[in-house]
Amino acid sequence: MDTLSYKTVSANSETVNKEWLLVDADGQTLGRLASEVAKLIRGKHKTNYTPHVDCGDNVIVINAEKVKLSGNKMEDKVYIRHTGYPGGQRSLTAQELLDRRPIRLVENAVKGMLPKNKLGSKLYTNLYVVEGTEHKHEAQKPTKIDINTIK
Fold first, then answer.
1. What CATH number is attached to the domain comprising 113?
2. CA triple 108-52-146, angle to 5 deg
């Protein structure tokens, strides 16, 4: 039976080809943007996707301050954190977080859609979110990608 060659090909760190992608968040809905960016970071859009390997791309998200939320989520959605001290629970609404640190709004949404393990922590380092259109990764020559046309 040497004529049959049905072998499953798994990607590993040597065979993965990582690219740099540029995503514009201007006018995008936060959750839909975050789910597409998480897919790009995870590598699910590639044919050699392997669940236990970082085979995704490096993604740069620009114009993070221009992201939208539908409905009343700007006032109703609450982000809770804890300082680690007794009585140290702090909360911010989405509008307050967008005013203070718009980068954090996009980062939290994407991080919530990545795996909650060591691989997820590694994948999170492939995300770069910036305010405005200027970023420090021009040397990598990122490919601009339109989130609305991704299947």
1. 3.90.1180.10
2. 50
